[in-house]
Amino acid sequence: MAKRVTRYVPPVIPSNIKPTPWGAGATMHRVHEAIYAVGQFNPSPNGNARFSPIHDPSGSVIPTLYAATTPRGALMESVFRDVPYRTGLKNVDSKRLEGKSCSVLLFQTDFQLLDLSKVALRGHGIQPRQLIDTTKAHYPVTRRWAEQVYAAYPRLQGLLWSSRQDDRALAVVLFGSRVHPQDILNGNRSRPLIKNGVPEDFVLELATDLKVLLK
User: Fold this and answer.
1) Rounded to an integer, what distance in angstroms lies between the CA atom of residue 18 and that of residue 21?
2) Positive or negative: CA dihedral 96, 97, 101, 102
3) What is the rounded distance in angstroms from the CA atom of residue 107 to the CA atom of residue 6?
4) For the stretch 83-101, what's the b/e string if a residue is b when 16 or more beta carbons lie within 10 angstroms of its beta carbon?
C-alpha cells in the first residue's frame, strides 16, 4: 500500500493580533557573515531562511536580523540547521563556517513582536508544522506569509518563536525598517566560527554533541 502523503496547507494570516513586547535587557547571540557589523541588519536579497529574505509591498528588501537567546541556538539556526536526525557520524563541510562570526547583542527595548509560541499559534489557528516546524522546502511559503504579516501590521517589528533546531532557545527575527539602531547595542563579544582552518572550541563542542564531523 502506498504511503499517504500529507498535503501541506499554508498558514493563515492572523487577524486582530496584539503584538507582544519582548526584548528589553536580553542578551542575544547572532551568527552572521563577518562582512556585516555586529548589529547590522542583513539587506541581501540572497539566502533561503524561514523568514528572510522578504520584501515590503513596494518590492524592496526588508533588512533582517536573526538572533537567539543562546550561542547554541544561534549556531543551530544557521550553520548546523541541516544536520539530519540519524545515528552515527554526520559530515558537515567546515567551509560553511568560513567568514562567519558569533556575536553578542544587547537589546535595549521591548520590540513589538508577533508571538509564534505554540500557545499563541493555537490561538491563531496555525499548526507548528505549517510555520515554525516546516522543512526548508516550505521556506518560500513561510517567507510570503511573513511579507503579508509585515504589510498587514505596520507596528510589528519582528517575530519571536521557539527554535525548531534547538528547543532550549528562543529565536527572533527583527525588521530593520522598523527598528531604531540605538535599540540594539554591540555586546563587544564577537568571535569567528573558524580560525586558520580550525573550528573554535564552542563550535566543536556543539559538533561533538551532534555527532558531526567537520571536514
Assistant:
1) 9
2) positive
3) 40
4) beeeeeebebebeebeebb
Q: What is the mean pLDDT of residues 44-48?
A: 94
195 Cβ neighbours under 8 A, 6+ residues apart: none
Q: Show Cβ contacts of residue 59 under 8 Å, excluding neighbours closer than 6 positions.
A: none
Closest CA to 79 of 94, 65, 61, 68: 94
Pick from 169, 133, 143, 149: nearest CA to 19: 149
Are the beta carbons of 57 and 152 closer than 8 angstroms?
Answer: no
Note the pLDDT tens digit of each residue in 105-145. Answer: 999 999 999 999 999 999 999 999 999 999 889 999 999 99
The 3-state DSSP composition of the chain as helix, strand, coil percent (nearest 5) reads 25, 30, 45
What pLDDT is recorded for position 5?
A: 52
Rounded to an integer, what distance in angstroms lies between the CA atom of residue 125 and that of residue 5? 22
Supply the mean pLDDT for the chain.
Answer: 94
Report which residue type is found at 207.
A
Measured CA to CA, the distance from residue 51 to residue 134 in angstroms comes to: 12
pLDDT tens digits, residue range 54-72?
999 999 999 999 999 999 9
The CA distance from 39 to 37, in Å, is: 6
Percentage, residues of the chain above pLDDT 90: 90
Do residues 194 and 79 touch, judged by C-beta distance below 8 A?
A: no
- The values of phi and psi at residue 150, to 5°, are -55, -45
Pairing mode of beta strands 212-214, 198-199: unpaired
